Amino acid sequence: MDWQAIGLSLRLSACTMCVLVVFGMPLAYWLANTRWRGKFLIEAIVALPIVLPPTVLGFYVLMAIGPLSPLGRFYESLFGHRLPFTFQGLLVASVFYSLPFAVQPFTSAFATVDRRMTEASWCLGVSKLATFFRVVLPLAWPGVLTGMVLSFAHTIGEFGVVLMIGGNLPGVTRTVSISIYDEVQSLNYAAANQTSLALLIFSFAVLAVTYGLQRKFIHVWPTR
Questions:
Q1: Does residue 224 sit within a domain?
Q2: 49 located within any domain
Q3: Which residues contact 182 (CB under 8 A, 6 or more apart)?
Q4: In a domain, 10, yes or no
Q5: Does the predicted TM-score (pTM) go above 0.70?
């Protein structure tokens, strides 16, 4: 197996998950509690990567962070190198690609928290930030953990987006999915099967954990 590619994919998945926790949870909390009538537009934007072909998303991200874009030029002026075909570029693309797999479970979890409990905390003089960490987050933790696991696992299997943004640079942008593709192209089916089987087992374990967590949200009707 290509351990270098596996290590790179694990690092990319971990970084993507952390970014989505930091920026995705505030967005999800706002979506779960806002009464703005136009929030469906934000929800549609968040869910767009689910239905959008990865190559299309990768193309537009590439245009947005490329050397001709304002963001690309700004990044190059700060760090002295371009975003495309770097790990940082992969991270940007992965955050957008895995956004709905984190934000949607976060939102569902926050929506299940009884608002009366948060209002009671506020009435006791606890700040909104402290209430979030002491009341909301512990109650919504199973759903938050589900979003973290799904975003991590989804990033592991990326192919089209990372290929568009990062290409195939060993040790830099070559992820495990691209490694499998290269092995198949080289007719090295034994190596491709070995890595694919490892990912299959990993994906099954992730789904088993995810469905186990989701059972906490299922209302069990009493038997008669």
A1: no
A2: no
A3: 168
A4: yes
A5: yes
Q: What distance, in Å, lies between the first and last C-alpha atoms of the chain? A: 54
Residues 96-118: tens digit of each pLDDT: 999 999 999 999 999 988 888 88
Count CB atoms within 10 A of the CB of residue 68: 7
Residue found by looking up tokens 């994906």 in the block: 203
Q: Give residues with Cβ within 8 angstroms of 187, minimum separation 6.
A: none
Q: Roughly what angle, to the nearest 10 degrees, separates helices 189-214 and 137-156?
A: 170
18: containing domain: 3-32+83-215
**Can you tell me the distance from the alpha carbon of 104 to that of 46, in angstroms, rounded to the nearest whole number?**
8
Q: Which tokens go with 29?
A: 């909390």
d(C-alpha 179, C-alpha 165), whole Å: 16
Q: Which helix (H) or strand (E) holds 13?
A: helix 3-33
pLDDT range class, residue 122, cuts 50, 70, 90 = confident
